[in-house]
Amino acid sequence: MTITQETRYVPSTTPSTEEQATLIIHGKDRPGIVAAVGAVLSRHNANIVSLDQYSDNPEGGEFFQRTVFTLEPMKVALEKVEADLAQVLRSDFELDFTLRALSALKRVAIFVSKSDHCLLELLWRQRRGELPITISMVISNHPDTADDVRSFGIPFFLVPSAGPDKSAAEAEHLRLLTGNVDLIVLARYMQIVSGDFIREVGVPIINIHHSFLPAFIGAGPYAKAKERGVKLIGATAHYVTEDLDEGPIIEQDVVRVTHGETVADLQRRGADVERSVLARAIQWHIEDRIIRTGNHTVVFS
Amino acid sequence: MTITQETRYVPSTTPSTEEQATLIIHGKDRPGIVAAVGAVLSRHNANIVSLDQYSDNPEGGEFFQRTVFTLEPMKVALEKVEADLAQVLRSDFELDFTLRALSALKRVAIFVSKSDHCLLELLWRQRRGELPITISMVISNHPDTADDVRSFGIPFFLVPSAGPDKSAAEAEHLRLLTGNVDLIVLARYMQIVSGDFIREVGVPIINIHHSFLPAFIGAGPYAKAKERGVKLIGATAHYVTEDLDEGPIIEQDVVRVTHGETVADLQRRGADVERSVLARAIQWHIEDRIIRTGNHTVVFS
Amino acid sequence: MTITQETRYVPSTTPSTEEQATLIIHGKDRPGIVAAVGAVLSRHNANIVSLDQYSDNPEGGEFFQRTVFTLEPMKVALEKVEADLAQVLRSDFELDFTLRALSALKRVAIFVSKSDHCLLELLWRQRRGELPITISMVISNHPDTADDVRSFGIPFFLVPSAGPDKSAAEAEHLRLLTGNVDLIVLARYMQIVSGDFIREVGVPIINIHHSFLPAFIGAGPYAKAKERGVKLIGATAHYVTEDLDEGPIIEQDVVRVTHGETVADLQRRGADVERSVLARAIQWHIEDRIIRTGNHTVVFS
Amino acid sequence: MTITQETRYVPSTTPSTEEQATLIIHGKDRPGIVAAVGAVLSRHNANIVSLDQYSDNPEGGEFFQRTVFTLEPMKVALEKVEADLAQVLRSDFELDFTLRALSALKRVAIFVSKSDHCLLELLWRQRRGELPITISMVISNHPDTADDVRSFGIPFFLVPSAGPDKSAAEAEHLRLLTGNVDLIVLARYMQIVSGDFIREVGVPIINIHHSFLPAFIGAGPYAKAKERGVKLIGATAHYVTEDLDEGPIIEQDVVRVTHGETVADLQRRGADVERSVLARAIQWHIEDRIIRTGNHTVVFS
Questions:
Q1: Is the pLDDT of residue A12 over 80?
Q2: Do D1 and B120 touch (CB under 8 A)?
Q3: How far apart are CA D68 and CA A119, in angstroms?
Q4: Where are the transmembrane segments (chains A, B, C, D) (predicted)?
């Protein structure tokens, strides 16, 4: 059975995301930004659906804004809005911004090792129309999930990762990814990615860690959790940086466990948390709800 | 021991709420509102700390906005901002708005019957500086909590409520309340308030209901929950309207229970949920985070 | 791609469930039951792994007990334990009991209409070895999920259900099910099953209802939840009885929602809760953790 | 206003705890324990209300059992049960056990520094009849909470703790506590207690730590949580051992926080979690639901 990913797409919000755009602004706070942005959008007859703005210190701190608006017709008008915003925000306020039509699906590569629970969660959500992304490819260092992935009509690439030198594997990853994806998701990929790779690939990387960070950093978190006797276990989705398990946290959740559960039980219970935490993190990322700042995230959820 | 409520006040956010104001706007959505409001605030050199805006339908739906900003000096400037906003919003956009300095504490009357858990939660939070309100008085149909209330330096008024005719009691309530309070909280007050009272008193009334509404409407919700065998019990804070247990819901929460718990156990478990749900609802109300619309609430939490 | 369900089975607890048995006892409480049961198990050299016992009233109420034990060799010994227990419990105490080797997988039929989220959750959990059941068949009144089901190597039977008279469809259901299954799961099956069917099929039926019962009984619970403006939405797994949405509740959970979410959003958020609540309910059922009593459940979770 | 703690006691379960006893058994697992214990209780006409038993490995692991039963008349009979159990469990099975009438309230000393939220939670719960303990005294290194404590009719002792040498203060603590208490609760007591004190005082000590251990060990956990950008903050109740923040965990919980919350906000949000986690841990301890084993706890909740 092969079902291509396009067949079941159901628009996920009303009014249709076909006509919506997001505007993300981030930079040094200065008076007048809201008025200036509002004026640009108003001039182009954009209807603001929602707007969230946050300043971490109104006296010279950082400014974060997410605006969702509709525009008719989107395509032509969006370029004009962008030109206008560039003038106002970059010149007058020295602020960065990104503008994107929500109908332009982000292209995602999923990395996975042997565990399939996070991978399948994403494949099914995407197929059901709940996760509006294009899954461009799945890359793995093990062949175990190849059949499952291909049954969804998605390319699967096996890139073995033997030995401590990852440079050959990462070179192959870069050949496959460059120009093809907007986001990489490590869906229980049990390999460390190098700083060089992160810089060269040039797109955000989201990882799901199987503990409530910063507790139980590194390998074997469920065994460590059992050893310490914690009463909750968790999972953490974060952006990947050169510092292992130290990147900006996007989302976390926990589930209650008891003394009677073995390490294998904790893994199973944790797998459910990992699935939902990773899915929420990706959902927020593709809806442009997350702004990175230092080693933190601002999430307009 | 009598501790007056002012003694321990600790400002609850940074920068100090002394200098912050909230602006709430609600009405029919029209293009250009954000730009117009932004322009007014910019003109008065207000620094926007946070802004949340939501439209339930960008094609002619309703518009909701909450803005927090700082202004220097607050007192003088706020009147000028208000005059300007009145011109722009009421004349040009036909929108309602309210503007308030966060340092102007809301005056609250708490109604209670015999159960003291919600009352004490509020008294202690207020004394600890976590709930920036002035508790003007506590009114009860029973004398049970008088000593506790007065030990906090707060007036306690006993207004018995015998028989089906509540008009004498409600007349006494109005004499005590009129002009003196900005909010009434029914903290497990086991009497029905009449539509006449709601209209005449003229300030919002928040009630805590001891179930996850709309399940278990009316009296004895914990007994009903036990009878039905539910696995979660909850509490609901809502604005009071003439329709009992049908007013706009502000906040809800639940806690897990088991087959082994008696009705008395459910009451105790539920009491903890009632305390925290009511405290959150009041916190959001006094921070002007809630906008009522029809029988719903928009909560910018 | 067709993967038979046996291929990936991983034993789910330690020590291996191959060697474990469960004993469920339910009836009128009388002194001495624990001692008598303990004596029987001790006589057969059973090692008790866990034992939970609950009495809803020690003065003549009902007695509920779940015991998990290991036995070597299981197969031969279990018959002797059963004979002994029958003598002690049925003759001396007039108690019902069931005894089962945990390695004897329960045979399950899944009923589904068009929504596939609950169905797929169960298929994947079973395949991953997390849900030790045999999925004997999937029955649907719509062809939509046929390909998915068959890709797991599981028979799919289409039994259309046109018109108000369900007797022909139910007769077909009985032909397929009788003698073949130990449990029926309604995984978002949007048809009412008759009292006659429930009686004749003779095995437990678990349904997932898309609301926090008893709130929003009947059709369209998410639309009703939106209309009422609740801040949490939920799902309820329950045993099916003749009274629609009134059967004994097994498990419930909720998720927080906001004013900004549409009915379609609530459906998507609720689908995640439905999946996890149904999976937990089935897990507890197959591990013999649930005892029905009147319209309630005792769950030793 | 001074209300003695006895005035409002309301029995917290049905049937009345006046007539209930708990039996805790812990030791090396051996076949036949359940039968032997059941036989003793049966012989004395005890009615078992609930029984939970767990073995961490049926092949030679550890055995944990909690039994609640009623006995008439309790006082006389309990001594005979104890003698019988001592014979059977200590001689035949080499197992430790403790037997206690639930009506015998545990005597508790609360240690506190300046923060009053955990202290007041316990004082009010005890007064309301929700926490069946006797609060024998409150000991503090600061005078701040003296008036509050004494208004509940409970002795308050100020024992300053200046300088690095705690030996004088701990000697004073021992004079106050020895023979007078069954449990010590550190309700945000910001001093380290020495190994010598723990050994000499000879009763369990429960601490509430203001983080989700093992994350953010040591001082300033909320500042560390803000720095790391976590999305949940938590609290942990644990038994105190010589290793700071490393004792057996009893209970943990978390609450969701956002990017917009300051360290002061996190402290306030965390205080609510600390209150409820500490209250639950004490409740379980006084109901004999917790068995310590190595650095873990078995909690029959």
A1: no
A2: no
A3: 47
A4: none
Residue among D105, D141, D40, D151 at smallest CA distance from D287: D105
Amino acid identity of residue D189, one-letter, is: Y
- Residues B143, B55, single domain; the answer is no
pLDDT in tens, B73-116: 776 788 999 999 999 998 888 899 999 998 889 999 999 999 99
Residue B171 belongs to what H/E stretch? helix B167-177
The catalytic residues of A are 245
Give C204-207's long-range contacts (Cβ < 8 A, gap of 24+).
Answer: C204/C239, C204/C285, C205/C239, C205/C240, C206/C237, C206/C238, C206/C239, C206/C240, C206/C250, C206/C278, C206/C281, C206/C282, C206/C285, C207/C237, C207/C238, C207/C239, C207/C240, C207/C247
Domain boundary among D101, D132, D155: D101
Domain that holds residue C113: 106-299
Contact indicator for D63, D55 with CB cutoff of 8 Å: yes
Taking alpha carbons only, the member of D48, A259, D63, B223 closest to residue C64 is D48
User: With contact defined as beta carbons under 8 Å apart, do A274 and A185 qualify?
Assistant: no
Same domain as A179, residue A287: yes
- Rounded (5°) CA angle B276-B280-B286: 145
Residue B3 inside a domain? The answer is: no
- Residue C274 tokens, joined: 């439905």
- Determine contact, residues B286/B106, Cβ cutoff 8 Å: yes
Query: In this structure, are C127 and C64 located in the same domain?
Result: no
> In 3-state terms, what secondary structure has residue D233?
strand
Element holding B48 (H helix, E strand) = strand B47-55
- Quote the DSSP letter at residue C26: E
Residue B27 has which token pair? 């009405």
Rounded to an integer, what distance in angstroms lies between the CA atom of residue D219 and that of residue C196?
A: 66
Q: What is the pLDDT of residues B53-78, one digit of tens each?
A: 998 887 778 999 999 999 877 767 88
| Secondary structure tally for chain B: helices H, strands E | 8, 13
Instruction: From A40, A74, A101, give the residue that closes a domain.
Output: A101
Does the beta carbon of A229 lie under 8 angstroms from any beta carbon of chain D? Answer: yes
Rounded to whole angstroms, the Cα distance separating C271 from B259 reads: 26
Low-confidence residues of chain B: pLDDT under 50:
1-15
**CA-CA distances (angstroms) from residue D123 to B120, B268, D5, D117, D280?**
12, 16, 9, 10, 14
B39 and A41 within 8 Å at the Cβ level: the answer is no
User: D50 with D134, same domain?
Assistant: no
The CB-side HSE value for D63 (13 A sphere, CA atoms) comes to 24
CB-based contact A120 C116, cutoff 8 Å: no
Q: Which two tokens stand for residue D247?
A: 């004792």
B121 occurs within a structural domain: yes
List, for residues A200-249, the tens digit of each pLDDT value. Answer: 999 999 999 999 999 999 889 999 999 999 999 999 999 999 998 999 99
Instruction: Write the residue in D230, D253, D297 that is nearest to A229 by C-beta.
Output: D297
CATH of the domain at C188: 3.40.50.170
Instruction: Reply yes or no on whether the pLDDT at D18 is more than 90.
Output: no
Same-domain check for residues C83 and C203: no
Q: What mean pLDDT is predicted for residues C172-184?
A: 97
**C-alpha R_g of chain B:** 21
Residue A6 in any domain: the answer is no
Does one domain contain both C191 and C288? yes
Give the whole-angstrom CA distance, residue C267 versus residue D55. 42
Do residues B138 and B32 share a domain?
no
Which CATH number do you get for residue D76? 3.30.70.260
Determine the distance in angstroms separating the CA of D53 from the nearest CA of chain A, rounded to an integer. Answer: 10
Same domain, B209 and B77: no
Written as one letter, the residue type at D18 is: E
Residues of D in contact with A241 (CB under 8 A): none
- What Rg, from alpha-carbon coordinates, does chain A have? 21
- Count structural domains, chain A: 2
Assigned domain for D92 exists: yes
